[in-house]
Amino acid sequence: MAKHYDVAVIGAGAAGMMCAAVAAQRGRRVVLLDHATRLAEKIRISGGGRCNFTNIGAGPANFLSQNPHFCRSALSRYTAQDFLALVKKHRIAWHEKHKGQLFCDDSSERIIGMLRAECDAGDVSWRMPCKVGSIEKSGTGFHITAEGGDIACDSLVIATGGLSIPKIGATDLGYRIAKQFDLQIVEPRPGLVPLTFDGPSWEAFVPLAGIALEVEVSTGGSGKGKAQRGHFREDLLFTHRGLSGPAILQISSYWQPGTPIVLDLLPEMDVAEELIAMKTTVRKQLGNVLAQWLPARLADGLLVANGFAPDARLADMADAKLRKLGDAINRWAIVPTGSEGYKKAEVTLGGVDTRELSQQTMMANKVPGLYFIGETVDVTGWLGGYNFQWAWASGHAAGSSV
Ligand code: FDA
Fold first, then answer.
1. Model confidence over 203-233: pLDDT tens digits?
2. Which of 19, 94, 133, 194 is most buried by its number of CB atoms within 10 A?
3. Does 94 share its domain with 177?
4. Residues of the domain holding 21
5. Using an 8 Å Cβ cutoff, are 305 and 204 in contact?
6. Integer Cα distance of 17 and 254 in angstroms
7. Cβ < 6 Å from ligand 1: which residues?
């Protein structure tokens, strides 16, 4: 005989715990199931262990989705200020880093403890660790076979996240359930992920691993299919396999395989104009001139990659050549070979197609009682606390409706 609950939530991560707590505090009998042995591992490792739990400026413009307007309703009904009020209620010390990013002062554990306490306040039942078997529609509700005994529920919320970081328990269960109920999926792919480069044109940059600098980076917005355009000013980091750092993680979510990303390594300066203007007065070698503005090893790498000898004298260079060099620095277009994949991706782009869901409640339009929240849905935030804000907001929307 299955044990009956009003609501079953599968996935006790950020979105699942928020949803369970909100529903339970509304008086619903809620069970929360998760297959992991440790609770909310992704919150624990987030923000370098300090959880960048929201972004004070979070709005629809900070999210990618095939329907960029879908997230508007949930985000406006549960805002960053609402989550911050909860953090303050639990007396968790926090601070703001750059660009509105809010972090815990001590540890992500505080956010996990807070969500757990909010679930306890509503008397949520836990099944964890618990393997989930089959899920079937039964009358007006659902029947779940699960370790520890079958469960019957009126509302079923899927909060199993995306595919990123499989070693801490990410699975495709959310997508499989969506397909089982005939819901469309936007093809998932890794987001907020380092990009890889190889081949002869990259050789000069391999030894630069460890160099970091602030850049402007852009991609998309043109060509076939007109991919969404991304544009960011953030730090870039050279790695052993390619490029990383916040600039690259951000742009990776907009990047389409086979297309270039465009880097401006000196966004404050028109390099060609500057070099041409200096030609008659400065007697230095090219490498030394560029090293005034860029890390010296990077300056040499760029010169070599573009067919210039670092010891060539600026005064001997034709203007056309200096323009070419300026382009290589202000408009460096490079095609990544690929990305580091789900092993390193902070998020998964794509997921349950938002056209299948109500933007007010997150319920599937054609399956009454079935909800999808958090990263399982085709709504993906920028780096900087936006993905948790989506988890809280979508969890709150479903928790208020079930
Ligand atoms: P989440 O992944 O949190 O939870 C899903 C839950 O479902 C897990 O507990 C999992 O065990 C469970 N589950 C999966 N499959 C299951 C199955 N088959 N059966 C039962 N249970 C199952 N975002 C941000 O805003 N600020 C930040 O600082 C960071 N930092 C960060 C660092 C790193 C290294 C990563 C990988 C990610 C981030 N993120 C982030 C992104 C953020 O962690 C992510 O977007 C949210 O955790 C998504 O919340 P969800 O609840 O949707 O999934």
1. 989 999 999 999 999 998 765 555 678 999 9
2. 19
3. yes
4. 3-189+346-399
5. yes
6. 29
7. 10-16, 34-36, 40, 42, 45-47, 51-52, 132, 159-161, 164-165, 169-171, 173, 346-347, 374-375, 385-388, 391
